[in-house]
Amino acid sequence: MLxxxxxxxxxxxxxxxxxxxxxxxxxxxxLWGLSYPRAVVFDEVYYGQFVSLYMKRxxxxxxxxxxxxxxxxxxxxxLGGFDGNFxxxxxxxxxxxxxxxxxxxxxxxLAGALCVPLAYQILVELQFSHCAAxxxxxxxxxxxxxxxxxxxxxxxxxxxxxILLAVLSYLKFYNLxxxxxxxxxxxxxxxxxxxxxxxAVGVKYMGLFTYMLxxxxxxxxxxxMIGDQNLSNVSLMCxxxxxxxxxxxxxxxxxxxxxxxxxxLLYRSGPHDQIMTSAFQASLExxxxxxxxxxxxxxxxxxxxxxxxxxxxxxxxxxxxxxxxYPIRYENGRGSSHQxxxxxxxxxxxxxxxxxxDPGMQQLVVSNPPRPVRHxxxxxxxxxxxxxxxxxxxxxAPLSPHSQEVSCYIDYNISMPAQNLWRVEIVNRESDTDxxxxxxxxxxxxxxxxxxxxxxxxxxxxxxxxxxxRQLEVVGEKLSKGYHQSMVWNVEEHRYGKSQEQKEREVExxxxxxxxxxxxxxxxAKFAELQWKIxxxxxxDTEHKYSSSAxxxxxxxxNIAYWLHxxxxxxxHLLGNVVTWASANVAALVYACLSLWYxxxxxxxxxxxxxxxxxxxxxxxxxxxGGWAVNYLPFFLMEKTLFLxxxxxxxxFQILLIPIVLQHLGNHLCxxxxxxxxxSALIVAWFSSVYLVYHTFSPVxxxxxxxxxxxxxxxxxxxxxxxxxxKQ
Length: 728
What we know:
Blueprint: H1 17-31, H2 44-55, H3 68-79, H4 101-125, H5 130-141, H6 144-150, H7 156-177, H8 184-203, H9 207-226, H10 233-265, H11 278-282, H12 288-292, E1 303-309, E2 318-325, E3 340-345, E4 353-357, E5 378-383, E6 390-396, E7 404-408, E8 422-426, E9 443-447, E10 452-456, E11 472-478, E12 489-496, H13 502-510, H14 523-536, H15 550-554, E13 560-564, E14 571-574, H16 578-603, H17 611-632, H18 648-668, H19 673-702, H20 709-714
Antiparallel strand pairs: 1-4, 1-12, 2-3, 3-7, 3-11, 4-5, 5-8, 6-7, 7-11, 8-9, 10-11, 13-14
Helix pairs in contact: 1-4, 1-5, 2-3, 3-4, 4-5, 4-6, 4-7, 5-18, 6-19, 7-8, 7-9, 8-9, 8-10, 9-10, 9-17, 16-18, 17-18
Keywords: Endoplasmic reticulum, Glycosyltransferase, Membrane, Repeat, Transferase, Transmembrane, Transmembrane helix
Pathway: Protein modification; protein glycosylation
Family: Belongs to the glycosyltransferase 39 family.
């Protein structure tokens, strides 16, 4: 029974030493001297702020993309024990001792290092030789721009890692498709494809380009499967569902999970939450939540409320009035009603309070029990401090002459009667009997007499002159001009009024609101709002010293100075390996020309290369040329400030194309032994030049050793490069 113990238990494993060696060398090239320089390098000043906010659990919004990449950078800070206390206010600032520089830069460096073995494996899975795969990995290893970008607290190396992982996973899955469908390894690589795609998109929206490419390739492969008569309908349906699960459902679920973790971690109010809706702000600890916690949920006749404009751009503001009136005549000669001004004021103020009044009753307090206001009800809005009624009439607004003036009515005993009835329309209602709710309801106020809608028009950039204290204009806009978010308001602060006398009411309006109902947004509601803000929030794009156009990238006519030593000539630049960039462009051109030549010849029934070589050529081009195109061409359509590092994902695909073209030329165009020998010698000479350029520019890749003025001038190979030289 125990006879199996007579022989030793032996475990055998195949180890690809090429892969091991490439991984080790990649780690050395990216991790060596990682803490140097111990100063803020270029966009570390930007991402570092978000890491600090993660450490302090303070909510923020970054319009550059989803939160997964930021969370990975924050993970490095967490592992290093970072407390978030550092002022990220300028590039070049020395890090204090509490900042774990090595830990913060670790994950981008690891991602950059692992791109080297990933490049090797991708070419192997594309059915190219190990020699070609080794060449691709070494080109990634010796690419100065990829080294620089991966050694700092930046996101591009992480993005490229997940992009390459997604490509490799899909290729492994596809190769297993032929002989072991639905096996454990088949499922593993298919699922990993979806996970890697989701992670790439979660780091930066640029990852969406490669995700769409892989979905397209997967769709084409499945289309070919449909024509396979050996597969039953049931089998085809299983394949379709498996791909749908792994490549669509799981990535979407993971994408949502990134935001779930993000919102779970960042539960405290901060400077960025002011651009969010009142409901979102109230869900955060501190800030608005301290004010609104426990307010009455249902708005009733007699409620005292503040009304915040939902749009919130370029700044949040509240419906406001004060005792000052519109001037009798404006600067352009037009006349006004000389009524009390109504504006949108970007600060909390006692003059932001309004009372919801029933037009059929005189009382300004909430009855017992409260009578809630519902969708479609007619109300009057009484300004809390001045007790004048919100009014609009057929008088041109001060800055928007095609819209109606909005005022608080003053009776001058002239032929201008009050027109102060407003219909409450709940925009996000579920039924026509919905109750108007604090924070949650988004409402429009439609003027009964003129059908004009209360609108904050100052969001087009116009503010009132000195007589209006530079506050934002509020107008009555005709519904025929279309719907806009500046027409929508929500109740932010709310209390049930108890004081009928004006003096007592003024004291009540100045007191804080505290009652007994809390409001919580669901995760999906918070996700939808945050996602919309990320997609639509645009910071003003200003011209940057190192910004560039997409046309500059292909020929590397630009660079970025990342860091300059305060006293010596040591500096770090984002500069690529000139030989590699030029070779990548030549490889793309050769691929395009050869493909066109082959297609024309094949159309004439002339086959220059075997069918399997042609299929290999096409599939490699679909990945490499397709990857370059989808990661580069969209930038010509983008209206944003662009930098050289935006080109790095596209460049990575283009680099992978170089050994593919070289192997193809060697196998199919160099037919004689002499030509093959000469071609091999040229490759060795060319690769030596790649290493020579890498070594030449390594001082500005790693930031050391410090170079003299003469040496720095010698590195300026193009007049458009901005190499920093100190004045003597």
